[in-house]
Amino acid sequence: MRMSLYQSIRVSVAAVVMALALTVIGLGQSPGGPPNSADPTITEPTDVAATAEELSAATAAMHTWVQTKFAVDDPGSHIEGRELVKDTKGQIHGRADQVSRGIKVRGGHLNANIQNGAVVDEFSHGEYIDDADTVDINPKISRGRAVAIVRQLARDEVQKLGGAAKESKEKPDRNLLVSADAGLENASLEIHPGGGKGKRKLSYHVSVKEHSAGGPVQMEAWVDQDGNVLEAYNNAQTGVYNGLGETFYQGWQGLGYGWNYFNVDYWPAYGVWVLNDNSLRIGAYDSYGGTGTYQASVSGCCGPIFGSSSLGNRNSTNADTYWSTVQSYSFMYWVLGRNFVNGAGGPRVYGSVDGLGPLVSARNHYGSSYNNAFWDGEKITLGDGDGVTFRSFATLDIVGHEWTHGLTQYTAGLNYSYESGALNEAFSDILGAMTERYWYGESSNTWKIGEGSYTPATAGDALRRMDAPWLQGQPWHYGSRYTGSGDNGGVHINSGIANFAFYTLSKGWGSSVGAIGADAATQIFYRALRYYMIPSDGFYWARRCTQWAAADLYGYGSYQYNQTVRAWNFVGAP
Q1: How many structural domains does the chain have?
Q2: What does pTM read for this prediction?
Q3: What pairs with residue 509 in β-bridges?
Q4: How far apart are CA 479 and CA 493, in angstroms?
Q5: Quick one: angle between helices 559-570 and 518-527, nearest 10?
Q6: Cys bridge to 294: 176, 331, 463, 574, which one at CB 3.0-4.6 A?
Q7: Annotated catalytic sites, by residue?
Q8: In the chain, % of residues over pLDDT 90
Q9: Are 390 and 458 in contact (CB under 8 A)?
């Protein structure tokens, strides 16, 4: 089927900070050591080196495609390449963002599949705003005024969420402080889609970070040249030594226990051991019930032992946070063929005590009884829970879920609202669950999300159920999807539809869908995310992109391809 390209705008928002759940709705060495014996398959890297000639030809092909499709006389000045990568099939995949006179155009994104030096239209799609060049790009207000307007929005949001963040009574050593992580801001000019064709507007896209008693605030807003807010939302989505971790969720690790891999470092200046793994460049950090960031540490007198398997010892879940990040790294490397979130062993944020630069950063003990976990565009952060609805969020599937939000940001970049946001959440649930499966084998718990953290007094339940979304109030069929504006348009609600499609594709469902196994389903969904999807894609494009991926991997008309079609048919995807 020949896929058409949209020239009209589908209004959506970009994901920067993604949380596990909105509880108000109820909802040096090879990374990670050797591959897990539960799944001995090693997936080779899916990206391969392309020659300069191939990349040059691919760029020219994308320019020709844009010129033909959108009647653009000078494609080189209207699209800005975000990524151009060759896969093991010999195909080149290009992602590009639209610009106008050097200014980003919000909503303009293109994804092209390039074979034999030409874009294959059937496997390519995107959005292009054809009247962006009509917008006056001379600013009428200052950057400072736009930032001040959004700062006030952020302050208002902090008040809505219970006022300023409450700091813990337990005072950490200030010498261990890494970052206060508040009051950060950024602003740049963007052309906003405004009210549609002929009504585009020059705006400042402003981001302001704060913290509230109810969680993080990352205010994203677009301010026009009259000082009006066009769009705004709180994007809170929601030296190497062998050490030992007595984690709360995964027991003893390292020094001959568990998976026998647990690396820490010693900081002689302060006489403490810290959770800095300077081989993998991974660090676990502690917010001490507040919003700052400190090294997770134990006294040097007691040896490199973190935790005691008790929630009463803050280092038990600090050890979980570190170890689950290592496991997520390993899953991406060995199963997905990717060098972690950004494809280059990062991103890396907070510093290491070895002085050799920043580490992949996972932060624990955030806020006061904070019932959530989130990715904020560069790191993950975990709350302790209130002990009733949730306990610590440092479970393997939750940590894997949050790191997958980062993977999505660096690949498809799915916007965190409405259908694209539901898919963003679903990919995190799916790959978080597959991380747990990779390390511990498949069981009934594989298909439960957050079962270790959610309602600790109730055995057997979970925050979400991929095998039975309806048990947690999620729709499983597209025809029953939530269509309101709450939960960013149902991102945590409608994720059940894609979760169930993945489950039925993996395990089968009577005569409706045949099982292809979770290994094959994982590769299909990841390939679609990696190579074919763009930020505004909804269920229509998720269906088609996974079909393209299945055809790449197994061939058109193969059993795996046909069951991918049937899985999406079963859940009613358009």
Answers
A1: 1
A2: 0.76
A3: 513
A4: 13
A5: 80
A6: 176
A7: 402, 492
A8: 68
A9: no
